[in-house]
Write a structure and sequence with these properties.
Structural class: alpha+beta
Strand order of the largest sheet: 1-2
Helix content: 40-55%
Number of helices: 2
Distance between the termini: 39 Å
Shape: flat
Strand content: 25-35%
Order of helices and strands: EEHH
Largest sheet: 2 strands, antiparallel
Number of strands: 2
Length: 75
Amino acid sequence: MLGAYKKASFFDKDVGWIRSGYVVVWQSAVLVTSPSEGHPVEVRDALSRLGDALLGDWRTANRPPAAAAAAAPIQ
């Protein structure tokens, strides 16, 4: 499991006051099953894939404005 959690306070307009809770920034899970002798390598590879996915998602969500405009479909 790879995730980033942050406790935060926010105004809940449905109840009309400030509430606290946890925000999950990103999360994914991978189940790794392998023989004992190869397990460390398999776990390392699974974590690498999760890290690559996290970075890819972050880069997509945080493109510079010019890059985001260029990547947007023309309507």
